[in-house]
Specification:
The chain is mainly α. It has 15 helices and no strands. Helix 2 (60-86) runs antiparallel to helix 12 and helix 8 (245-275) runs antiparallel to helix 9. Residues 1-14 have low confidence and may be disordered.
Length: 471
């Protein structure tokens, strides 16, 4: 077993053995990292827009511009943070120091983002812009190293899937906790003053998130280090990453798969309200059941990958969820029970492959070292997060554009047939197309179990893709 050490100045230690297994404690520790992200960042994604418009008092168009500028800047910063993390040397490894020293300022700025200062005019706009910019950048400084951590805490293929399963199960539980409790806690702590309520509630969530970050840092350890210290220019590392064809396939899968998912997610509330005609209580139930189904799917992943090749499983699930999306298209939305069942089934089956997909990033990192003699965990993780953030921006823009082009009328009791058809399309046809496209991409993905065992065995003995065969 490879123990945690300081990486030497000139050469790095060997990679961990695939026989090294993670304990339940370490898997839970890893899962706490994403739970922490969702406890701190969840209120931002779910309620910050509402806070800015209805509590803080900013113009909606101004908020949209601010979000766009910050998200583009943040996405461009991700690869830089990933490359810097790859070059970090510490007794805690390469990535855990970033989480350890970044979580306190990140959680602090999460609290300040929901504070309403006694300012007016441009001063208030500047405060909102600065806090949101810092919030986004500091989130990247903990989230990119955290995602990279999944590539280096184990070389065991089954444990890589298992720890991702723990991760997304705990992350979705944190999302559920935020969605169910935040607004009631705002009312409780604020006692009629929403400014006070949002500030105290988010401070509470941030403190919980900080505790979880520390549990992640001190209950995990990095076992895999690069065979050679990264000394090259950051731009050279970026160019090298594009020579990793399997990683490029993962990035393409992230980008193409997430856009339809974000479109579908953004349109869900409109589908429930205007096609299924659900009230607020049942709309919340409809969305929450989908999250619960995702938790159940994440819990199923580890068992499924014991019996099926995870690459084949990922491909099959993409086609299956596409078929379920098409089934929903042909169901009358008035048949609420059948829609509930199909949507829950789609969420459950689709969630099975989320931990699988994130384990692909670690596999592509091993492949990159084997092929290029360079381990760039931070660069690879940041590249996938870059694709995720860009797809989030595009997915949100598509949802807003479709509603605008079909003349959606906010809060109107009856929407036009064109609008209703567009909403149905975003819920069914677009995610169906995404499932088919991503599964088709991974038909050409080569890092199955057999290939990964060969790569990891070669790396243990210092062999690479261009090494001469030893008879």
């Amino acid at each position: 077993m490879v123990h945690e050490v300081v990486v030497p100045d000139n050469d790095a230690i060997s990679v961990a053995s695939a026989e090294d297994r993670l304990t339940v404690r370490e898997k839970l520790g890893f899962g706490f990292g994403d739970a922490a992200c969702n406890m701190s960042w969840g209120p931002v994604t779910m309620f910050l827009t509402y806070f800015y418009t209805d509590i803080f008092g900013l113009n909606a168009a101004l908020i949209a511009s601010m979000f766009l500028i910050v998200r583009l800047f943040d996405a461009c910063m991700d690869p830089v943070i990933g490359a810097l993390a790859d070059r970090t040397t510490s007794v805690y490894g390469r990535f855990r120091p970033w989480i350890l020293y970044g979580c306190i300022p990140f959680c602090g700025i999460c609290i300040l983002a929901f504070y309403t200062p006694d300012l007016t005019g441009n001063a208030k706009v500047v405060y909102a812009f600065c806090t949101y910019l810092l919030l986004s950048v500091l989130y990247s400084t903990v989230n990119i190293p955290y995602c990279s951590l999944g590539s280096v805490i184990t070389a065991n293929p089954q444990d890589r899937v298992s720890c991702q399963s723990y991760r997304f199960t705990m992350a979705n539980c944190a999302v559920l906790l935020c969605s169910f409790t935040l607004l009631p806690l705002v009312d409780y702590f604020g006692a009629g003053n929403q400014q006070k309520g949002f500030f105290i509630t988010n401070a509470l969530f941030s403190v919980i998130g900080l505790t979880m970050f520390l549990m992640c840092v001190f209950n995990t350890r990095e076992r895999i280090f690069p065979q050679h210290r990264v000394k090259e220019n950051i731009l050279v590392s970026f160019r090298s990453a594009f020579k990793n064809d399997q990683w490029l396939m993962v990035v393409a899968g992230m980008f193409i798969g997430c856009i339809p998912a974000f479109v579908c997610g953004g349109a869900t509330i409109y589908f429930a309200k205007y096609l299924m005609h659900l009230d607020n209580v049942y709309t919340t139930l409809f969305i929450s059941i989908g999250v619960v189904a995702c938790v159940a799917g994440n819990l199923t992943t580890n068992m499924m990958t014991r019996y099926f090749c995870k690459v084949k499983l990922y491909i099959a699930v993409g086609f299956i969820t596409a078929a379920i999306s098409m089934m929903i298209f042909f169901v009358d939305p008035a048949n609420v029970m059948l829609i509930f069942i199909l949507n829950t089934l789609r969420a459950y089956i689709g969630a099975i492959t989320v931990p699988v997909f994130w384990s692909f990033i670690a596999d592509a990192d091993d492949y990159g070292e084997w092929k290029l003699k360079k381990r760039m965990s931070g660069v690879y993780a940041s590249g996938n997060l870059f694709a995720l953030k860009v797809s989030l921006a595009i997915g949100g823009a598509i949802t807003a554009m479709v509603l605008s082009l079909t003349h959606y009328v906010p809060e109107a009791a009856i929407q036009s047939p064109t609008t209703l058809n567009a909403i149905m399309m975003m819920i069914t046809l677009i995610p169906a197309a995404g499932g088919v496209l991503t599964s088709t991409i991974f038909l050409f993905y080569r890092l199955d179990k057999k290939m990964m065992l060969r790569i990891q065995n070669d790396l243990r003995f210092g062999k690479y893709a261009d090494s001469p065969e030893i008879s």
